[in-house]
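Async update (no meeting this week)

Hi team, since we skipped the sync, here's where things stand on the single-chain job. The sequence we agreed to prioritize is pasted below, unchanged from the tracker. I ran it this morning and attached the output directly underneath so nobody has to dig for it. Comments welcome in thread, and please keep replies under the output.
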Amino acid sequence: MDSVQDVLVTLARRHAFADLEALTDDPVVVAVCEFGQRLLSLDAEDFAVEAREVPPALRRRARACTMPQTPREQPRGALESLRPAYGLLLEVIAVRWHRRELSPMVAALHIASEYLPLLAFEPVLGHAGDPARWPAGLTAPGSRFGVIGDRECDHTKPEQSAAGRTLRVAGEPAEGWRAYFDRQHSQVAGALATCVADCRNPCTAMDWVAPERRDGLTSRARVALAFADTPLVRLRHAAPVGHGFGVPSPEEVQEAWQRSRIILAKHEVGQAASAEDGFPLPGLPSLFSAIAAAPVPPSTLLDDIAAHLVTLLRSS
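Output:
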C-alpha cells in the first residue's frame, strides 16, 4: 500500500496542485501549490504575487508571462515578449490534455487565439504590443487607426473603440490600465492583424512597417486570424447553452484539430501545423513558432514546480 507521502508525490507529479494543497498543512507546500494552480488556471494577474516561499527563479519565469498591472511597471513581462506566455499556454494545454480536462484546455486554446496576432507583430514592433510603446507611425497623417465611426475603416466598432483606447491608456491610472487589458487588448490584437492582412481600404496606419518585412508580417497575421476561426478554437463556442456546457470528448478535439490543420495548410506559414512535433495536438508548437518567427517550445514551468514540490514533500 502506498504511503501518504507517495500519494502526495503522485499528485505533485500529475500537476494536481489544488488537490495536493487540500491534503497538506505544510505552509510552504501550500504556498507553492497555490502558485502552481494560478499558473495552471492562467490566472495571469496573480502569477507571482505574494509567492515568497517559491524559489526566485520560478517566480521570475512566471513574471515573464504576466501583464504589468500599471502603465510604468517594470519589467514589462508579457508586453516585452509573448513567447514565454505562449510557452506556458502550450504546457497548460498539454497538462490539461493528459488529465483529460478538456474544457479548460479549450479555454486555453481560445486565449491563445485572441492574442496570436501580437505574436506575429512582435518581430516588427520590437515588443509584444505594449501600449506605452506603439510606433508613432500608427497615427500618421491619413491613418484611420483608432478613429471611431470612420466608415472607410474595416475595423468593427468594438475594435475602433479598443484601438482608440490603446493609444491613450498608458496615461491612465492603474485601474483604467487593468480594465483595458481585461476587456480590450485582445481586440487591438485582432485590429492590427486586420490592418495588414484583411483591410479592403488600406490607410497609412501600417506604413511604418519596413517594406522588406511587410510580406512576412502579412502572412503571419493572416494565419493568426485563420487560427481563431478554426474548428479547434470554435469548440469554445460550440455548446448550445453557452460556455461551460457540452465539454468536447478527446476524439472530438482530435478531429477538430485535424480539420484545422488542413485549413491552416492552405497558407504557407500555416503549413507548420502539419509538423509531427510530439505535442498532444501535433504541430501546434510549430505553428506558434512560425507565427512568431522564433522558436516557441512548450514551457517546463509547471513541471519544474511539480519537481520542487516533490523535493519539499520528500524532505518533510
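Quick observations from my side:
Residues 239-243 have pLDDT under 50 and may be disordered.
Residues 4-98+300-315 form one domain.
Reply here if anything looks off.
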